[in-house]
Design goal:
single chain, mainly alpha, 2 domains, 3-stranded parallel sheet, two-stranded antiparallel ribbon, 7 helices, 5 strands, about 40% helix, disordered C terminus
Length: about 160
């Protein structure tokens, strides 16, 4: 994860731990050479990134490291300088070409994936009938929205 602190970072931390994945935190101040080294050294297959932070254009830097991103289908990146990286997920903005928005990741899953995730979470949400799931507001079900709402109510920000 290459991003400053945000709600998506917390969700990613818990999700990767629950799924048994290794989360590699990349310093948000890293520039091209440091980013390239970190991604390759750790063998990162996916990168969740902010689009920008302060004066850093993260997507612009990724495009320099992986110009193939411009023509890649999301999840199908084949970059010569980042040979293991396949998927770039963006936080907080519209998806750049070749990337997926963090908010859209859950919509990519099928029913089998949702059942497996429900099992990991130890909950019964996957057993909710489709009619009731459809009746619920997608925004209200979003863990990002709930996390931001909790964060905003405690800090008074945003």
């Amino acid at each position: 994860m290459w991003s400053p602190n945000n709600a998506e970072w917390v969700i990613t931390q818990f999700a990767t731990a629950k799924a048994g994945l290794i989360l590699v935190n990349i310093n948000p101040a890293y520039r091209l050479a440091e980013l390239e080294y970190a991604l390759n050294k750790a063998g990162c297959v996916a990168l969740i990134t902010a689009t920008w932070f302060k004066a850093s254009d993260y997507i612009g830097m990724l495009r320099e490291l992986a110009p193939e991103l411009a023509s890649a289908a999301p999840g199908n990146l084949r970059a010569s300088r980042l040979p293991e990286l396949r998927l770039v997920i963006t936080v907080g903005a519209d998806a750049a070409h070749g990337t997926v928005r963090f908010e859209d990741v859950s919509h990519l899953a099928g029913d089998a994936d949702r059942h497996r995730l429900a099992g990991l979470a130890g909950c019964a949400t996957a057993r909710v009938p489709q009619q009731k799931r459809s009746a619920l507001s997608a925004r209200a079900r979003s863990p990002i929205t709930r996390c931001r709402a909790m964060s905003n109510s405690s800090t008074g920000s945003r």
